[in-house]
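Run log // design_07
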């Protein structure tokens, strides 16, 4: 089972030609909602540090529980599909996706330093993306069931057809994929 990890979806293709898409837009919506809540708390309780910290911790914990619940449901479903069809699992090795830096001249101190290529909003989205946590859930559940897990180079993985292997114009969609709902 080949798993293509995207920001808003998880596309799975099996060697039998079946395609499954797990919608992760709920996860990014959760992160955005809790980001806005924490921002509002920051504005409201700027002077009262104890209330601010208590409310921040409360909403961080809620966000963590809700995202973990969603990720556990997705990983459980993937492992069940792999187990019933006797598949191994291929995941993308996205280890260094957040480290996109170039050397540039710092305009404030005149030194050449590593500077991020990404804008602030994109950096926030990348840092709240839970791909590593989802991969670790899939890995430990697969190990528990005795399913082999391998990591592959992600270069061009979203452009290659998971069934026939040909490279067409990428449009971000798997035609014929079944959308899977994991909110149970």
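design_07 sequence
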């Amino acid at each position: 089972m080949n798993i293509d990890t995207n920001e808003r979806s998880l596309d799975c293709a099996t060697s039998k030609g079946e395609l499954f898409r797990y919608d992760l837009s709920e996860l990014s919506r959760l992160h955005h909602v809790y980001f806005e809540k924490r921002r509002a708390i920051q504005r409201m309780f700027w002077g009262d540090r104890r209330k601010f910290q208590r409310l921040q911790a409360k909403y961080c914990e809620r966000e963590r529980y809700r995202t973990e619940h969603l990720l556990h449901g997705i990983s459980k479903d993937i492992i069940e599909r792999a187990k019933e069809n006797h598949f191994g699992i291929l995941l993308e090795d996205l280890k260094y996706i957040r480290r996109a830096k170039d050397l540039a001249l710092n305009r404030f101190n005149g030194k050449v330093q590593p500077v991020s290529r990404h804008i602030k909003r994109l950096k926030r989205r990348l840092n709240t993306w839970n791909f590593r946590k989802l991969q670790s859930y899939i890995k430990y559940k697969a190990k528990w069931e005795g399913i082999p897990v391998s990591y592959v180079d992600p270069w061009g993985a979203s452009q290659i057809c998971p069934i026939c292997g040909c490279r067409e114009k990428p449009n971000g969609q798997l035609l014929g994929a079944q959308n899977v709902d994991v909110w149970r």
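The chain is about 45% helix and 20% strand.
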